[in-house]
Amino acid sequence: MTDPVAKVEVFTLTQPRETPYLGAARPGEEPNAQGYLVRRGNRTVYPIFDRSVLVRIETRNGAVGWGETYGLAAPGAVGAIINDLLASFVVGRDPADPEVIFDDLYDLMRVRGYTGGFYVDALAAIDIALWDIAGQQAGKPVVELLGGVKQDGILAYISGLPEATREKRAELALSWQEKGFHAFKFASPVADDGPVAEIKHLRSALGPKALIAADMHWNQSADEALSLIEGMAPYGLWFAEAPVRTEDINALAQVSQSTSQKIAVGEEWRTLWDMRHRIERCRISIVQPEMGHKGITSFMRIGRLAGELGIDVIPHATIGAGIFLAASLQASAALSATRGHEFQHSIFEPNRRLLIGNMDCKAGTYFLPEGPGLGVKPSPEALALLEMI
What we know:
Radius of gyration: 20 Å
């Protein structure tokens, strides 16, 4: 080891939004003093701004890697875990061994039950930054460190149609179809007339060849989910995402074993164990690893197991500056089971200015950034927005 880690720093990056994620607030969804609102359709908290947590790792010789994880709510929790605990066990380590470091850090808190949540989110950001450095030091993009490109150009699906009415949402989808995108996903909590009416209207507008999925946001019992899924089926449902509460594996088993429609889950998983607990009992068609929850190491383990089992991989992409999106694309391209990737259009385009690199998404296809490591880094404008935790 000639260039060990010397420094680990943690920041938040916050930006205002004209319209909250998933669209304008409905009656009863007024934001509180912290800038958080609760969507009545899924009882989930969202900020009225965009925010993520960035990690900067520097080696003794000055190599710099960037990682990113969730910062939508309580980002200080992630910062405290890194600053008070994880950073001290990363300094001095060889960044060429990110997978080994991931396992060592994960082991630190297993006895105390910290095998998910904010703890693994913090670990994910560190893992991404270490892979970034490893790629830079090897002079290779991360995808090459992961075994090489298996997917040259990744299908991108339009995620979310943040307009106030069903008609406006269909118009927005049509505008993206005209740009060459042919796969879409709507969010059922803000489909005010219900998901069956929503997919029926979208199908009529987009035509028979468009792929249309429903994000059900973990908000139904098994019976409720099955009723909605079967109601959407005649309109060519691509997949039903997160149909039941994530804790209720019995309900997921019931739904997945009782319908022929494709069930997609896994955004909120942190590790391979989360997947194993479910695939033993559930008929899962698609796994949706989220890089900000997993890091590259855990993401790849989940994706490789999916490939072995004949399960498709269509990763989730969340709100952020784009560092973990670049990591997700690098990892997705290295997986033979990848069949597409979520495209957060309301975030990707406005946030282009936050990154240096040529990561792109056009005409329904993602293109990996070029260059060693992740292929991207924060722009001067992004650096100016960082606030150290």
